Amino acid sequence: MLHYLSLKDIDSLPNWVQEARSLKPNPKLYKDLGKDKTLGLLFFNNSLRTRLSTQKAAMNLGMDVIVMNFGSEGWALEYGDGTIMDQGSSEHVKEAALVISQYCDIIGIRAFASLTNKEEDESEIVLESFKKYATVPILNMESSVGHPLQALADAITLAENNTKSKPKIVLSWAPHPRALPHAVANSFVEMMQRQEADFVITHPKGYELSEKITGGCTIEYDQKKALEDADFVYVKNWSSYRDYGKVTNKDTNWTIDLKKLGQAKFMHCLPVRRNVIVADEVLDSAQSLVIEQANNRTYAAQIVLKKILESLS
Amino acid sequence: MLHYLSLKDIDSLPNWVQEARSLKPNPKLYKDLGKDKTLGLLFFNNSLRTRLSTQKAAMNLGMDVIVMNFGSEGWALEYGDGTIMDQGSSEHVKEAALVISQYCDIIGIRAFASLTNKEEDESEIVLESFKKYATVPILNMESSVGHPLQALADAITLAENNTKSKPKIVLSWAPHPRALPHAVANSFVEMMQRQEADFVITHPKGYELSEKITGGCTIEYDQKKALEDADFVYVKNWSSYRDYGKVTNKDTNWTIDLKKLGQAKFMHCLPVRRNVIVADEVLDSAQSLVIEQANNRTYAAQIVLKKILESLS
Amino acid sequence: MLHYLSLKDIDSLPNWVQEARSLKPNPKLYKDLGKDKTLGLLFFNNSLRTRLSTQKAAMNLGMDVIVMNFGSEGWALEYGDGTIMDQGSSEHVKEAALVISQYCDIIGIRAFASLTNKEEDESEIVLESFKKYATVPILNMESSVGHPLQALADAITLAENNTKSKPKIVLSWAPHPRALPHAVANSFVEMMQRQEADFVITHPKGYELSEKITGGCTIEYDQKKALEDADFVYVKNWSSYRDYGKVTNKDTNWTIDLKKLGQAKFMHCLPVRRNVIVADEVLDSAQSLVIEQANNRTYAAQIVLKKILESLS
Fold first, then answer.
1. Smallest CA–CA separation between B218 and chain C, in Å?
2. How far is residue A78 from each of residues A124, A144, B61, measured CA to CA in Å?
3. Pairing label, strands B265-267, C168-173
4. Using a CB-CB distance cutoff of 8 angstroms, which residues of chain B are in contact with residue A274?
5. How far apart are CA A168 and CA B74, in angstroms?
6. Backbone torsion region of residue C62, taken as left when φ is above 0, otherwise alpha when ψ lies between -120 and 50, otherwise beta
7. Could you tell me which residue ranges the Aspartate/ornithine carbamoyltransferase carbamoyl-P binding domain spans (chains A, B, C) (predicted)?
8. Nearest in space to C307 (alpha carbons), one of C10, C5, C7
9. How far is CA C140 from its chain centroid?
10. Which of B49, B184, B266, B293 to mutate to probe the C interface, most C CBs <10 Å?
């Protein structure tokens, strides 16, 4: 039984990317594979691309889909062991996960980092609790620490646009008015560590990501130097990891424009704040791959669901 | 590629009405037409009839349906050109529309008037932005200015109940405690301008609808005179258009009762506030067509979706 | 046309339980029965098990399902007769029920007790109004007074686990921080009155359920005595019925632990507050049937929907 919690669950990234790309000419080819199987999508947080593309992927595979906004439609969950549940939580994840496993053949979960409790976030408490107590495969639709469906879509997009044997790929921090999680950046870094590339991370001092994830990566604090001769620039804001969840820098000098981008292709997971993260001129240019990335979310979700379904039979 | 943004998108109202009526004996007849096609319904506002009837119509055509409450489940959208997005909006409609076009074959949108910014409302900023940036057909599920699915259902209902070559049809304003949009009234007027009828609009002074829409219509401020010998009375509240979005009149003398109605049939789009808009005795009488109107919402949506699907193949 | 509003709508509980159990080996066997039929699920309150298991049951029967959160997605409903609707409610249940009947072949409704207006709650105002005005069957997904899908799932679970001709079954109150409705307890009692069993209800003084429901049942205020030699212990909190909707007792001596449980099987409808209603050691033991009960929710819903569908043809 295959879970998809992080990129570590992919046995061969190149193979999965290749298989995902091969779905595109005929997305309904495996419509019998998911017949009479139910995918339950549990949203603890908002979602546009993940919500729609995962439903689309499941329908392409012939699955029935049940969507639930856990916060507003269900019960507040408890995760602690031995808790006396006389406060806000009405149901323990032990029961919820076991119960939902009886109604769904695969459970997708979106649960962002709190950005207030580093230890709890790093323990992936929601995702890991569901994995521990559910009896069916779990699909990570963005968790505290990672967004592996996005990273897989990014890998597909890179494969479709790359022409070099060792392209230069830069992950650049950019400013944002609110505190954002590290999940997308983390999973992109993990994906890059499985790719042949000249990979550089750039961000202001104090914005270092977890060393457990970036270990071995080149970090260049001078954005201009980092961007030199880049083939792909992946831009993303994240809040401080050291000063956990804080916004300590809103320096608009980090915003990406065409001059900074040079000849590189521009990537971002969306939603993106125009003229804060990146200038209009970039998003509206042919160098932007953001719409292709979003399209590849369907095929990333579909290849993952296909692998999971195959692991069940 | 056919959009359905307003009644202007109907090439022949009588033909569409006729075709919609012909769907009724066998609503599933065209179930293969929508096979493997996805309808995405984006709700920026609450909905009962539109939500259910549009889903039902799509399922009758064999489509897959994805429903999303954009406000609570997605990201706040930005519509301005060149905006520095460092405030509340997380995503620009340029990205949202392009991205959703990749997951859905048709996009339905419900986005009410703000009733605070007349210019923005009249520009149909949400609907027109999606039309501009999406690459798939857009379906208007009630916008700032119009509700053409309702008007088409009303045309079907009139056709089913009318026995005269030139019936007298009255659109009458009625009081309401809260400020309501002009969309339903506007689309009804537009529809009437495509029908053979003796059409009269009646409302208190100061409640004139946009002249761009009512141009050429008879306006009679004396409700009693307007209702004389009417065959159909369509009742609806709207807030002031001149004093934009304000409730300047709650005169219960405008409430419709059986005496005022005479022999006419009563129409309303629902939801209707009983004994404010109209007396119980009218709604509970055989002269009320409101339930038929709501039923015809399914066939209005179905003929529109059928026409759009045919325009795609 | 069969409604499922309470256990009274079951002609033979043993037969329904038997038929529900027979669905388990092949849940998709009757997938043609619901073909081209639409189930509309209207949620006025939160739900996890009911939401997912009823959708699952409907999909097992081949039905299309439309889910709507009435509170947040639709309009506030009015139930009074002759009301001048100039306050918060936008739509009368008379219109809503008739309209939805035109889009859905069966309407499921979840509407909890207010716990503030005993008379209104006891009149089952939401459920009975829909039954009165709708033209299609109504399915109770937990109402003010009852939760008959839960009770039917409980009957299935008892049948699967009972080995005696007349088991001792105890319904025990347990403490809870917030005021809860009486629906689950009521329906369990009603179900027990249709079963061969030595049935005892235990709760603190002042927590008597409605005599209209418990009439003829043994009530034992000493929990220890009540639990002696029990085969099944069904635990549930409810707020005071006499002092309507009030929490007048939070005595943790009523919490169930393994010592109190003895050799009995433990039952609860979920969600359950661990270490408030019941100790971890019970839920985590093999004596707990709560996960089986939740699983049987699918088959309870499926047999009810199957009976209703058969009543339509």
1. 30
2. 14, 17, 43
3. unpaired
4. 78, 83-85, 92, 94
5. 34
6. left
7. 3-160
8. C10
9. 8
10. B49
Q: Do C95 and B290 touch (CB under 8 A)?
A: yes
- Residue B141 has a CB neighbour count (10 Å cut-off) of 27
A295: which residues sit within 8 A by CB, 6+ positions away? B99, B102
Q: ipTM of this model?
A: 0.97
Virtual CA dihedral for C150, C152, C158, C164, nearest 10 degrees? 150
Q: How close does chain A come to B37, measured CA to CA in Å? A: 10
pLDDT number for residue A71: 80
Would you state the pLDDT for residue B310?
98
pLDDT of residue B72: 85
- Which pLDDT belongs to residue A72? 85
Are C74 and B276 in contact (CB < 8 Å)? no
Q: Taking the CA of residue B16 as centre, how many other CA atoms within 13 Å lie in the half-sphere pointing to its CB? A: 31
- Decide: A26 and A19 in contact? Cβ < 8 Å: no
- Is A238 annotated as a binding-site member? no
Contacts of C51 in chain A (CB under 8 A): 68, 73-74
Spatial distance between the Cα atoms of B92 and A287, rounded to a whole number of angstroms = 18
Q: Can you tell me the distance from the alpha carbon of B130 to that of C159, in angstroms, rounded to the nearest whole number?
A: 56
- The DSSP annotation for A37-63 comes to -EEEEEESS--SHHHHHHHHHHHHTT-
Token output for C197: 């069993």
Q: Tell me which chains share at least 3 CB pairs under 8 Å with chain B.
A: A, C
Q: Which residues of A touch C46 (CB under 8 A)?
A: 72-75
The pLDDT of residue B71 is above 90: no
> Which domains are assigned to chain A?
7-147+296-312 (3.40.50.1370), 150-293 (3.40.50.1370)
Residue B260 is classified by DSSP as H
pLDDT, residue B149, reads: 98
> Can you tell me which residue has the tokens 């509309």?
C40
Is B7 annotated as a binding-site member?
no
**Helix count (H) and strand count (E) of chain A?**
13, 11
3-state SS assignment for residue A241:
coil
Count CB atoms within 10 A of the CB of residue B225: 10
Structure tokens at B313: 């193949």
Q: In this structure, is the dihedral angle defined by the CA atoms of residues C125, C126, C129 and C131, taken in order, positive or negative?
A: negative
Q: What is the pLDDT of residues C128-166, one digit of tens each?
A: 999 999 999 999 999 999 999 999 999 999 999 999 999
Q: How many CB pairs under 8 A join B and C?
A: 86
| pLDDT tens for the 313 residues of chain A, in order | 999 999 999 999 999 999 999 999 999 999 999 999 999 999 999 999 999 999 999 999 999 999 999 988 888 999 999 999 999 999 999 999 999 999 999 999 999 999 999 999 999 999 999 999 999 999 999 999 999 999 999 999 999 999 999 999 999 999 999 999 999 999 999 999 999 999 999 999 999 999 999 999 999 999 999 999 999 999 999 999 999 999 999 999 999 999 999 999 999 999 999 999 999 999 999 999 999 999 999 999 999 999 999 999 8
Could you tell me if C141 and C75 are in contact, meaning their C-beta atoms sit under 8 angstroms apart? Answer: no
Q: In chain A, whose CA is at the least distance from the CA of B102?
A: A295
State the nearest Cα–Cα gap between C34 and chain A, in angstroms: 15
Interhelix angle A290-312/A13-23, nearest 10 degrees: 100
What stretches of chain C show up as alpha helix (H) in DSSP? 13-23, 49-60, 70-73, 93-103, 118-122, 125-133, 148-161, 183-192, 211-214, 223-227, 258-261, 280-283, 290-312
CA distance A36 to C60: 8
Q: What average pLDDT does the segment C264-292 reach?
A: 98
Local structure of residue A74 (DSSP, 8 states): S
SS3 state of residue A205: coil
Copy the structure tokens of residue B40: 């995405």
The pLDDT mean for chain A works out to: 97
